[in-house]
Specification:
343 residues, 4-stranded antiparallel β-sheet, 11 helices
Amino acid sequence: MIIVMGQGAGQEDLNRVVSMIETKGLSVHLSEGVEHTIVGAVGDVRRLVVEELEVLAGVQRVVRIMHPFKLASREFKAESSVVNVDGVQVGAEQVVVMAGPCAVENRDVLLETAEGVAAAGAQVLRGGAFKPRTSPYSFQGLGEEGLRYMAEARETTGLKVVTEVLTPEDVDLVASYADILQIGSRNMHNYSLLSAVGEVDVPVLLKRGLMSSIEEWLMAAEYVLAKGNEKVILCERGIRTFEKYTRNTLDLSAVPLVKSLSHLPIIIDPSHGTGRWDLVSAMSLAAVAAGADGLLVEVHPRPEEAQSDGGQSLKFPVFQEMMRLLSPVAEAVGRTVNVREAT
């Protein structure tokens, strides 16, 4: 349930509403907009009497939220959220491109990649220091050593850093290095991890589970929001279907659908979504046309040598050309891309 406060409502009016909600044993989430303050009542709303709330001074209207995801819904917050990543605005006019290798393999390759993607206009460096792999014999990442390389790349290039966290115990460690904490598709239903990242003041990139519905995905976001972290970015990365020619089936319809249901920004991962480097550019263009707020793209200077997902990684010239092609598409839908000319 949400209570919309009128424009003339004062602090005493707001306190009165909050007090009534809390005395019924529910928790309160405040969203202060330009024109209105919205009070979200989270819990067993059957304990609240709508008529008692509606007559309180300063209350404009009371709305019951029908979706199971409350804080993530458009009913709770009508305007689209913008997540500020230390100056990089995800969900604003500019489409944010996050790019880099699937895994942090070593210092030299990471720094080379960071410089290459930054030169093309990327604003965030992606790279896995901890890598959950299907096979226990595959490269699992460098751990904290990889995090240190990511931090060094940030200092060298100015790029922000997004990397995956796998366990609740690692949240504080990864958060001390990263600008964005990534929750991978395998961990979308890891509720302990979702709650843990909800308790830190660091943006969270939440990937859709490979066999998860959109409602399940938004409910996972709800776990983070309910713990107090409002800086959630959704990432569509493809779902598993019967198709064999691609790694996953990239659900681009998720972009406008999620935007109709939720105020959270949404980006697309066309690399995992297709598993093929030759499809990444086309899907990136389509994602921006569909309204995506950003892209998460795998780039490697020598994909044939990559220890993880080389087949879906772009070489620098291909990535530079993709960035160039994104600009007119973004412009056509009223947005921009941070494109830089290759030197």
